Each structure stands twice: as C-alpha cells, then as structure tokens.
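@channel sequence for tomorrow's demo:
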Amino acid sequence: MSKRFSFVGSMSFTGVLVVLLIVILALATFVESSYGTRTAWALVYGTHWFEVLLAVMAVNLVAVMYRYKFFNRKKVVVLLFHLAFVLILAGAAITRFISYEGIMHIREQSMTNRMLSNNAYVEVTLQKGEEEVTDGREVMLTSLTPKAYRAGMNIGGDKVKIRSTGYITNAVEQFVEASGGEPLLQVVFVSSGQTTATLPSGSLQLILGMDVSFNNPDSSAVLRFFTQGDSVCMSAPFPISQMQMGAESAVRYEPWDTIAFREGWLYTVGHMRMAMQAYIPSAKRQVVAAPPGEGGGHVSAVQVELAYQGMKATVMVPGMPRIAGEAVTGEIGDLRYAITYGSREVELPFSLFLKDFVVDRYPGSNSPSSFASEVVLVDQEMGIQEDRRIFMNNVLKHRGYRFYQSSYDNDELGTVLSVNKDRAGTFVTYLGYLILMAGMLAALFVRGTRFARLTKISVATKKAGVVALLLLGGGMSLFAQSVPPKDEAQAFGALWVQDKGGRFEPMNTLSHEVVRKITQKSGYQEFSADQV
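structure tokens (generated this afternoon):
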C-alpha cells in the first residue's frame, strides 16, 4: 500500500477534514447571520472548493473502510456508520448537481405549468446585423461577491467581453436628466391624502381612481398631460381652476380647454388639487442604491460592463433570484445587446389550476392560523385531472415534483408554492439516514460494542431498575387530571391572558394556537382546545 493511499485512508486525515469542516461551517454561520443566506451560499456553500472538500471527505471514508477492513461481521457497526455518511454525501451531491427547486405563483381561477428557479441567471443576447448569439449562466452575486460573473462571446468575428463590476442589494429606480432621454413629469395630487405621481412620457396610470396620461393618445384617460414645444399643458372633461400660489384670485377653464401646466401654480378639480413638482424635458431611468435608512424597491441590481472593439459600456440591470428579470437593452457601436438578471422559467410536464385560496384566522384576531390552496392537478399525458389541497405539512407529490405551501398574495387571491424536484437525491439521502439508524441500533445489540458490555450487569441491578420504572409510572398516575366539562372550559377560555409577544388575547385564542400546532386540528379527540 503506497504512502499516499495510506495517508488518504488514515484516521488522522479524517480528523483534519472534520476539524476543517467544523471551522468552515462556523464561519459560514457568522457570514449568514451578518450578510444573509445568499452571501453564505456565494462565499461557502455554493463554491467549487466546498464541493471538493465534501468529495475528499467521501473518498477518505471509503478509503478508511477499505484500509481498516470494515467489511466483516465484527466491524459491522463501524461499517454502517461510515457507509451512512458516504450515502448522505452522495445524496447531497445528487441534489446539488441534478435536482432543482423554485417557486410557482398562481392567481385564483388561473392555470400554469411554469415555475421560477431559485437560482439567478445572467442572460445576454447580442445582435449584429442578421447574426444573433445568446449566453446564460447561473450566478451568485452579492455585495461581497460583486465580480462573480464573467463571460466571453464571439459575434461577427469580434470578441465581446462581459463582466460584472458592482452589485446593489437595496436598489431603487430614479429618473435623472440626460441627453437622448424622454420627457418626465412629476405631479402632486392632494385629496383626502397626498400622492406624488411620476409620469414618464407615453405613460397611462390610475391615480386616485382616475386615469391620468402623459403624452399618451389613449382616449380613456380622464386627465391628460402633454407637451407643446418646451411647455407642458393639460386638459380634462370637467372645469379646472388655476391659481398662482400666494394669489387670491383664480382663473376658471372650461372642459377640454388647453391649460398651461407650470410650477408655482395650483390647479383645482372639484375637491382635488394638484401641482407640478418637477418637469425634466429629457430624462433617463437609472438604478441606484437606496439612501441609508430608507427602504428600496426590494430588488437588487448588477452593474455589467461590456467591452467591444475598444469601446466599453456600463449597464445597471435590476433583478434578483426568484423573480423573473426584465431585459435592459442598448447599443455599443453597431452591436445591440439585451441583458437580463433574474430567475429562469422552468416548464413542467403538467399544470395546476387554483380554484380557491383559503385563509383561516385565530378567533378574535387577524393573525392567520392556517392557509391552504385548493388546486386541480391537470396532467394530459397521464390523463389525470384531480382535486388536491395543499397546506402546511400536506405536500402535493406528482412525477417526482413536490409542492409545498409557501406564502400568498396580500389580497389573498393568489398563492405561492415552493417546488422541489429531487426524487433521486432524497432517496439516497434517506437511505443514508436509515443505515445510520440501523448502525445506532446495531451498536446496542451486536456483541463486542461498548453498549453491549454495559448491558452485562447483575440481575439485582436489573430488578432494581424495573422496580424504579414501576414506581415512576405509578407516581405519574398521581398527577393525572380529569377533563373539565365544556361549559367550565368555555368560561376558562373567556379569560384574558398575555402572550409571549406582550399582546393581550382571550385564553381561547392561545389554547387554539397551541393545540393546532401539536395536533394540526382545532381539538383533540372529542375534547375542545379549552378542555385540553
């Protein structure tokens, strides 16, 4: 046996790997608590060197089994433990490289067979003349790994280099004055409250129950803003009063009159007033980091640099994992590009139709106690059309896919399901767990183990243990309590108590919450939650 194989299959090398893994996992835990799960995956769990470390551990375990000859009856317990860990690592590898997961969003009375991947991708499409090339790569971009994406593409005999140069975790979109842009109008509307609307040229928005347009020919707009030369004008199918701020008199305009819309003037329509906040004749949309202490748009953005024929262009592409990205287009010389950052759409071989989404709440509270999706599974290839119900701890399984209830829309008219396809990885991993449990049981009964030696105690000691167990069982019966009648339990449920969060609520609410978490039902056998 060579010295190299002897070292790989040594227990000392196993100890080094275990200590190294513990240190790495501890550091990854600190990174995750400080910067989030995605950063921990980008720096540790999703890296190739971490995959190599786990592969080396699997090779070490197999080499140890071979070197120390675990394949015999006397060492069956140790063999089971080592084999279990090898299978668990193999299952993790299958999950990592073959399986995938994502989310599926469905609105009520609609059907879909598409899901969004959990991982994010940067998709690039280049077009030069009639030629078009595309490239898509999975990325793990975070504030600590902003330069993790790099690609090279060839088109028309020229090399195009693309790389990420920055990453914004909390991004917002804003318009800035720039040449070659489009007009932008910002209007403040005051009715029962104050609303500021940003109207890019060509837009049509619903504001305070009224369709408002800017440079949009749509005739459905009630309030219409448009440009005439360097000025902004407005018209509406009702009278409008115009008054300069600080003045005492107003000018009244008839329906559909063309009215100059200027800064420093106040315009009144019935009980609603409005004023120009800003007007930019040429504006472009720009993605920037949200100011410290302010919430952004719950979206990230990656800064991408393209290099082509000595020219360079920098593009900010908004997006994030588990959200479909929107393409950002542009030109650099004679090259047109479209870049997308976000999750990929994955088509499933069957569909789900959402009939109804149901939310149950605790009595006397708006807090949801449970929520479920009433769906119809439609698989035309297998001739299946079945009603299914998905809720917590009740998973829909079909053709290797598993659907879990994840969340729902704010209006409670749509559901978000977590989707997982990992039949092979799950089977191998669970087989490893099963063998691990078999090894634990074998350690209790197989001759020669320490547990087996500990069982060889005197008969007197065994009798004393049996007597102690009997006394303990009898003592426990002394604490048994009778179940109170329903009327007494109902009166008990009306008492007000304080939960762990400091909120006051009836005892009935607290008892229902505890019983439902334990039994997944509103009661236990024939007893109500208050009786339990």
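heads up for whoever presents: The CA atoms of residues 485 and 531 lie 7 Å apart.
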